[in-house]
Specification:
The longest helix has 22 residues, at 35-56. 30% of the residues lie in helices and 16% in strands. The strands form five sheets. Strands 3-4-8-12-11-5 form a six-stranded antiparallel β-sheet, with no helix packed on it. The chain has helices spanning 11-31, 35-56, 68-77, 96-106, 120-128, 141-144, 150-160, 171-177, 197-211, 220-231, 235-238, 364-368, and strands at residues 5-6, 9-10, 265-267, 273-284, 303-304, 310-311, 314-315, 327-339, 353-357, 360-361, 376-379, 388-392, 396-397, 403-408, 419-425. The radius of gyration is 30 Å and the shape is elongated. It starts with a strand and ends in a 6-residue tail after the last strand. The protein has two domains: 91-231, no CATH class; 255-425, no CATH class. α1 crosses α2 (35-56), α4 runs parallel beside α7 (150-160) and α8 (171-177) packs antiparallel against α10 (220-231). It is of the alpha+beta class. It comes from Paenibacillus anaericanus. This is S-layer homology domain-containing protein. Residues 54-117 form the SLH domain.
């Protein structure tokens, strides 16, 4: 085919650009569609194609870059752009105002032009749509030009999907549970760490997926860490098949809300003892990558107590934890705040005592034979040198009892004994 050049544009290209558009407009007129709308649609499509092509050619976002797909998609949608010289700058930190602008634009929220700072119109829309509140941080130039943290990004992301909470330490839990935010590896949340342009577009694409009714893969280690940061335990993330109950027990809430975080601080009635359970951490022994295994000595050195004889604090029978890997470990991270009466309360750096109730052995004599059929104490060298219990996933019964987790004073005598129920649920076998 013969070609001619006009101002550096080939005849084929010129024909496509000019006559292709004219054809579209003429076709629209025949169909009764407004030519202006058809032209705008054509131009938008051409613009999107150009943006996509530009995004694919970013010199700092090569093939294989972990966020390339999301970056190309985001640029083609028009809520983020590159920099001169074919750069995207994926690792550049992003400011609060920039992220809010991107979210507002990606959600297609109408924005009115203002004469103020570049971010003001987007901030107003964000406030009107409950994406931002002045209780988050002050509405001023300094704050909006501050790099956004992962915690702040999680809060906006959750709000953008329509969820909310009144607990500031719950945003990251909601974000990770929905798959909006993933961890930095091994359960690390990095809530105070800043985020990048690449991370931002990835999170916004996840927001749009959820808004469209989609579901996202979840980083279970991040969810577990976020649950601990929220209310002091991860049992609902790690062992959800154990601590279950009827939905009528938490109408208008979630089962996680049944955990009584406010009762994790225990002060005896006589005022002589005070301690706190800072966290109850579940560890899945069947998962060799469980990030909380780092809290323990090597598993090969741990034993569980089968209620046999004890000599100078050391059980006479040794039962390795490593032989019961189809189990959970519960690690009780606590501390004593004060003890003004050692005659009544046993002093311990481990803090208040914790008891698991409702998981019963079919035959206690079987446990003494080395069959783990109910929760048992875990120790390293001597009994009570670790704040850990082992819970078999199967083999125990409830016998009509509900499952309870109780925190109580380390009492030596009955006087002054105080306890709190942190959780009470039906459990999987309650009749």
């Amino acid at each position: 085919m013969n070609k001619f050049m006009v101002g550096g544009i080939s005849g084929v290209m010129l024909f496509t650009v000019l006559f292709g558009t004219v054809y579209s407009v003429q076709a629209a007129e025949k169909k009764g569609t407004s030519p202006s709308i058809a032209l705008e649609t054509q131009q938008a499509a051409e613009s999107s194609v150009q943006k996509t092509q530009d995004a694919r050619n970013f010199t700092d976002v090569r093939d294989g870059h972990w966020a390339k797909t999301d970056i190309v998609t985001a640029v083609s949608k028009g809520y983020v752009a590159g920099y001169p010289g074919g750069l995207f700058k994926p690792d550049q930190p992003i400011k609060r105002g920039e992220f809010v602008k991107m979210v507002v634009t990606a959600l297609g929220l109408p924005v009115e032009t203002t004469t103020g700072a570049w971010y003001e119109s987007y901030v107003k829309v964000a406030g009107d749509n409950i994406l931002y509140s002045t209780s988050d941080f002050a509405n001023n130039d300094k704050e909006w030009n501050t790099n956004i943290t992962r915690q702040e990004m999680a809060r906006i992301a959750v709000r953008a999907t329509g969820a909310t909470t009144t607990e500031d330490d719950k945003w990251m839990y909601l974000a990770t549970k929905a798959g909006l935010i993933t961890g930095l590896g091994k359960g690390e949340l990095g809530i105070d760490k800043t985020t990048t342009r690449a991370q931002s577009v990835t999170i916004i694409e996840r927001i749009l997926t959820v808004k469209d009714g989609g579901t996202l893969p979840v980083d279970k280690y991040a969810v577990g860490s976020a649950e601990i940061a929220w209310h002091g335990t991860n049992i609902f993330t790690v062992m959800p098949e154990i601590y279950v109950t009827d939905e009528k027990d938490y109408v208008g809430k979630t089962i996680e809300d049944l955990w009584n975080e406010e009762l994790m601080v225990l002060e005896t009635k006589d005022g002589d003892y005070k301690g706190v359970l800072e966290a109850l951490i579940a560890i899945d022994l069947a998962d060799p990558n469980d990030p909380n295994l780092k809290l323990l000595p090597p598993l090969s050195e741990l034993k569980w107590f089968n209620r046999s004889g004890v000599n100078d604090g050391v059980p006479m029978e040794q039962h390795p934890v490593s032989e019961k890997m189809d189990s959970y470990l519960l690690y009780y991270k606590g501390k004593e705040i004060y003890n003004n009466n050692s005659a009544r309360y046993r002093s311990s750096d481990l803090g208040p005592s914790v008891t698991l109730m409702g998981m019963n052995a079919v035959k206690l004599t079987d446990m003494r034979k080395g069959i783990l059929n109910m929760p048992a104490i875990v120790y390293h060298h001597k009994l009570h040198d670790l704040p850990v219990d082992i819970v078999p996933k199967t083999g125990w019964v409830q016998n009509g009892d509900k499952l309870k987790i109780e925190i109580h004073s380390p009492s030596v005598v009955a006087a002054g004994y105080t306890s709190h129920i942190l959780l009470e649920v039906n459990g999987p076998m309650f009749d």
